[in-house]
C-alpha cells in the first residue's frame, strides 16, 4: 500500500488548521464523493456538534479522500459559514480509504484513534476515555470495538439485519476468552495509533475488506482486542434486498482477498485449534455448503421429492437451533428486538440463505475477474 501511495504521490493537507495535539484521542471520519448525499450538511452539523460536545476529550477529524465531486467545496463552505470545532484534511489523489487513514495517522500525534464512517453515529464517543487506562496497561491490546446496531430503517430487510447483527454480536462471546475477533468494524472501533500505523504498513490497501484485513494483521502481529459493548455504533444499513446483496458481495469479496493474502496466518490458526481457526473452518464449510446447495436441490428433486422436503425441513430446523443457541450464549445482544425475537427468527433462515448465496456467488465471480 505504501509503495502504491508513493507512486501516485499521494499527499495530505489541512484546510485551515491542523489539530493542536492537546487531546489523547482523535475521531477519524473518511469521506468520498458525498456531495450527492442530500444529508451532507446535516452530517457535517452532526460532527460539528460532536466536536463541540467532546472538545475536552477528543479531536474530530474529517478526511476528504480525493473526492471528484464538489463535496470538498461544500465542506469548506460549511467551515467558512459555521466555524465548526472539527478539523478537515484533504488527501489527493484518492487513497482508497486505508491510505487516507494512514496519511492522517502520520500527520497527528494522538495516542488513540476512533474509526468511524461518514454516515454512522457513535453514541457517546467520550466513553472511550474510560477504556484508555485499561488499553494502556495491557501492551498486548491493539484496541477495542463497539456494539454495532442497525439504525433508522423499517421493513423486512431492515428487521433481518437487526437480528443478523444481534447474532453476529453474540459470537463476540465466543472470542472473549482469547480476546480475538474476526472483524473490528471500521464504523466503530478504537485503536492505539502506533499499532494501527504498523498494521496499515502491511495492509494491501484493498477497499472491500479493509476492516477484516486490518484486524487479522493485528492478530498476526500478536495483538488482541476487547469488546466495548457499552459504546453504541448506530449504522444505517441497506433497506432493499438488492442493496443488501450488493453490500454482501463487497464484504465477501473482502473476505476472499483477506483469506488469500493472510492464508499462512489462517492455516496456522487452524493447525493450533484457536477460535479464529475454528471460525475459519466453519466459514469454509458454510461457503461450500451454500455454493453446492443448487446441486443438492437438483439431485434430490430428481431422485426423490420427499427427500428434498426433508432436506429443506432439516436445514430450516438447524438454522433455528443455531439462532436459539446464540441467543442463549448472549441474550443481552437481542434486547433491542424486544418482543419480536420469535417472529424474526422464524423468517431468518430463508432470508439468510438467499442473501448468503447471491452474496457469495457475486463475490466469487468478482474475485475470479480480479484474479
TrEMBL record:
CDD domains: CESA_like (cd06423). The chain crosses the membrane at residues 281-302, 308-330, 342-365. Residues 28-196 form the Glycosyltransferase 2-like domain. Gene3D superfamilies: Spore Coat Polysaccharide Biosynthesis Protein SpsA, Chain A. It comes from the Bacteria. Pfam families: Glycos_transf_2 (PF00535). Keywords: Glycosyltransferase, Membrane, Transferase, Transmembrane, Transmembrane helix. PANTHER family: POLY-BETA-1,6-N-ACETYL-D-GLUCOSAMINE SYNTHASE. Belongs to the glycosyltransferase 2 family. This is Cellulose synthase/poly-beta-1,6-N-acetylglucosamine synthase-like glycosyltransferase. It comes from Chitinophaga skermanii.
Amino acid at each position: 500500500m505504501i509503495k502504491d501511495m508513493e507512486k501516485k504521490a499521494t499527499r495530505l493537507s489541512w484546510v485551515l488548521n491542523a489539530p493542536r495535539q492537546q487531546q489523547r484521542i482523535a475521531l477519524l471520519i473518511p469521506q468520498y464523493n458525498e456531495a450527492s448525499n442530500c444529508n451532507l450538511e446535516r452530517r457535517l452539523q452532526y460532527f460539528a456538534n460532536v466536536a463541540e460536545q467532546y472538545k475536552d476529550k477528543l479531536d474530530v477529524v474529517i478526511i476528504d479522500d480525493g473526492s471528484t465531486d464538489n463535496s470538498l467545496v461544500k465542506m469548506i463552505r460549511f467551515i467558512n459559514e459555521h466555524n465548526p470545532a472539527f478539523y478537515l484534511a484533504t488527501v489527493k489523489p484518492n487513497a482508497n480509504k486505508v491510505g487516507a487513514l494512514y496519511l492522517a495517522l502520520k500527520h497527528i500525534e494522538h495516542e488513540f484513534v476512533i474509526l468511524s464512517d461518514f454516515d454512522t453515529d457513535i453514541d457517546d464517543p467520550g466513553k472511550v476515555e474510560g477504556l484508555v487506562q485499561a488499553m494502556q496497561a495491557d501492551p498486548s491490546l491493539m484496541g477495542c470495538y463497539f456494539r454495532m446496531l442497525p439504525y433508522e430503517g423499517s421493513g423486512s430487510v431492515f428487521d433481518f439485519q437487526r437480528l443478523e447483527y444481534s447474532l453476529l454480536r453474540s459470537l463476540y462471546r465466543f472470542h472473549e476468552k482469547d480476546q480475538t475477533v474476526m472483524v473490528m468494524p471500521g464504523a466503530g472501533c478504537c485503536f492505539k495509533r502506533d499499532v494501527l500505523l504498523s498494521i496499515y504498513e502491511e495492509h494491501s490497501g484493498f477497499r472491500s475488506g479493509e476492516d477484516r484485513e486490518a484486524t487479522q494483521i493485528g492478530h498476526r502481529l500478536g495483538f488482541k482486542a476487547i469488546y466495548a459493548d457499552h459504546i453504541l455504533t448506530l449504522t444505517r444499513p441497506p433497506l432493499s434486498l438488492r442493496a443488501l446483496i450488493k453490500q454482501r458481495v463487497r464484504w465477501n469479496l473482502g473476505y476472499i482477498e483477506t483469506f488469500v493474502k493472510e492464508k499462512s496466518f489462517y492455516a496456522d490458526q487452524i493447525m493450533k485449534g484457536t477460535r479464529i481457526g475454528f471460525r475459519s473452518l466453519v466459514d469454509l464449510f458454510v461457503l461450500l455448503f451454500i455454493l453446492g446447495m443448487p446441486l443438492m436441490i437438483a439431485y434430490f428433486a430428481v431422485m426423490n421429492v420427499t427427500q428434498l422436503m426433508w432436506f429443506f425441513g432439516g436445514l430450516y430446523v438447524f438454522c433455528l437451533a443455531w439462532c436459539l443457541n446464540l441467543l442463549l450464549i448472549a441474550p443481552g445482544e437481542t434486547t433491542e428486538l424486544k418482543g419480536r425475537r420469535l417472529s424474526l427468527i422464524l423468517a431468518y433462515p430463508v432470508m439468510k440463505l438467499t442473501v448468503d448465496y447471491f452474496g457469495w456467488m457475486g463475490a466469487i465471480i468478482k474475485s475470479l475477474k480480479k484474479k
